[in-house]
Write a structure and sequence with these properties.
149 residues; Heat Shock Protein 90; 5 helices; globular
Amino acid sequence: MKSMIKICIRDVETIQYTREMIQKILKEGMGMEDYLYEMAINEALNNAIVHGYENKGQRNITINLSKLSDCRVSVRIKHFGKGFPGNKRLQRAEEKANNIPQEELFLESGRGLKIMLQGADYVCYNKAGNEVILVKWKEQANRREATGK
């Protein structure tokens, strides 16, 4: 059973409301209450705003929340600004995940991809680097059944 909700953001004033709405949809509509996953989604949204549009101009961002099954939820965030080599950067962040230098732990930025990797069970960018999908299994046992991992 797949259900989907689409949210479109056109201006920065709606960002906080959008974050609260996503939290409510995940909890009440999809039965998912996971703060680390919410942080991962927020980081992906921040990246779209800050890096995709470089904090300038109109921000057209679409967010698709999908309940793929009773045990799996996905969130897809797409912006129409500048993309980047997301999957290469994710791979680098994953390789460095256990070797974060002390001075990097408290930096203002630069941890978004690491947070996304920690909060979601699957993270992947499209080829253009302007869309990311974050998938979360409700329970690790369901993930192992579905993926064998």
